[in-house]
């Protein structure tokens, strides 16, 4: 890299994380972005900068670079990247660069990578894995899509992480063809980000990249993920299931997570100790256990790590119990597949749903979970589409519509001008339809950007609205007359 010109596509978190290492390698770095604030931040770190609109179509200018390193959000058909490939300039993702830096021991001896991917459950699984590694005493760091760039983890020396629990999205995996982890897992696969990848087949291929290392781990209870067992490039494959495991897999026997892959039916931990409770939490715990066991972690450390784990905000977190009603924030359930797992973790649910479906269909979800639904409160741009699916497949479930924006005045003379106000109305409506023993569940099955900054803002808004409730807000349940 010394003296070579490198163009970084994207000047936000992942792009900025590249700069110290590129500088240490002696590269001449230019950052391209459309956001002036992002460019200014990179300039403060010593990089040259250029407007994305200016350089993207300039074949001669792009050809002067030896390498383009892209942030994961850029699609394969992004103008800058297609220009680079057209003029023969290689394109790496930031994870590809991080992997090569680690293998070259730029920041010391190469680390053990344990990679987590899947449509849903990545962050919970990665966090569980990090808890297990901490319990084992092995210096480790959760990084990647979970918030800490991999390069930041590689550079950190306090303490130096020997094992990396790396959460990777399909975007990151697409741009990282060289990554060969010690173990990688594909938790599950459902239709998501198809606009980015161009279709389901390409999305699956990107996820398959996680299974090219030493040990491939797949979720056997997911149809698509389980099909990857025969396609994994890894010399050893391991499955996990919520049922009784076969030899070579992990699963559950008599209420205990057991390992028949790296031990002969070794008991790990009671399923009753897993948080979050329910099918999704159990699957995530099995996946984290498989990765940890593949890395040589003992069974006792797995048990202690999982028992100590507590779910992070917006991931099926109980935010309050009031009058026998539990309020749960699963704002991270940003697609129907995630919402399904969230709803099935509870016996009786008042469901808050709505936002941007991104082309996803909810009919199959509603048909499967309808027996769990006491009522539903819908909001956001695609709230009506969810309500329509409820009308088709769960006509007996009362549905409350919380209209957005100025339309709210038509319904109840309340001027709803932002997402926080919409959420406050939705939470009150849900509370009014909740009886003791039910769960008021925010599991929107959608993206949040129509009314909120992100899913975190949506979850915080839910939590704030719940905090304002009193027992007087808990209503008369879900009799048909209560439907809005």
Shape: globular
Tally of helical runs? 20
Task: Estimate what percentage of residues fall within beta strands.
Answer: 15-25%
- Stretches where pLDDT is under 50 for at least 5 consecutive residues are 405-417, 477-484
* Mean pLDDT rating: 91
Strand ordering within the main sheet: 7-8-6-9-10-11-12-13-14
Helix content: 25-40%
**What does the main sheet amount to?**
9 strands, mixed
Total strand segments: 20
Spatial separation of the terminal alpha carbons:
63 Å
Structural class, by secondary structure, is alpha/beta
Radius of gyration: 24 Å
What does this structure look like?
By secondary structure, the protein is of the alpha/beta class. It has 20 helices and 20 strands. It has helices spanning 13-24, 36-44, 52-55, 59-63, 79-86, 94-103, 122-136, 150-155, 170-174, 194-197, 200-208, 223-227, 279-294, 299-308, 336-344, 363-369, 383-393, 408-412, 419-432, 455-467; strands at 5-9, 28-33, 48-51, 67-70, 91-93, 112-117, 140-144, 163-167, 183-186, 215-219, 236-240, 249-253, 256-259, 266-270, 317-322, 325-329, 349-354, 373-379, 399-401, 439-442. It has a nine-stranded mixed beta sheet. α19 packs across α20 (455-467). The chain is globular. The termini are far apart.
